[in-house]
Amino acid sequence: MSVLWNSLKLGRSRPFFVIAGTNVIENERNLVSLGRKLLKVTSKLGLPLVFKASFDKANRTSLDGFRGPGLEIGLQRLQEVKSVLGVPILTDVHETYQVELVSEVADVIQIPSFLCRQTDLIVAAANSGRIVHLKKGQFASVEVMERAVEKVRTSGNDKVMVCERGSSWGVEDLVFDPRQIVFMRRFKVPVVMDCTHVCQRPAGFHNPGSSSGYGNMVPILARAAVAIGIDGVFIECHDDPAKAPVDGNLQMTIPDLEILLSELVAISKAVPFYRNEDTTSNEE
Fold it and tell me: Is 177 helix (H, G, I), strand (E, B) or coil?
């Protein structure tokens, strides 16, 4: 675990790390195949890969929404990816009882954005000893996320990352405020940009029953985030996004992802990453 953390934590030895995979597990064969393609792309570009997929999308808008195979089968499929490809695994938890079982497979435990204030869940994840990936809630301020980081550290675990994924704009849209990335650097933890869900549109009058989004904006906001300076990018992909049961319009194909990652590497090399900027205050 220390080897993985050393490859992800603050440093300038590589442009950025990549958290990538599909939104939700569909079947084992496709999961390993997708992971193999991702590993080929990231290895070619010299980027560390953490493979991600959810075993249960517990926050579906509708009861009819696809949730995934569940905890037991989902962890079996993630373990298969880990065993076959030798890549670290990230998956999310929604309840405290899941943490112990998930920690046996996952190297990184993700706290979903809607649950970023749930103390018991955060502490349970921290106590697992795994890396904790805190997704910033659409409703959450930088100060709220700073307290979430403190919950992990106070539990005796300094392996924690924060992830920007947009802020609520009204009730049916999200916006990306670049300042959030800069402000969260003061936590002295890796800052990740969720390039997929920052482009999401929550369910509403325009799309009752499910979320939608602006898939064409994923590369644009990814480029902006890397230019600002981040430690990792979070991007979801699928072999056939049109057939994906969840967030298909936001997921990228592997060929498109390879093009984007190549562009992001070039941007990262061209723009200095001022890690030592004074971000101690977000006030004038």
Answer: coil
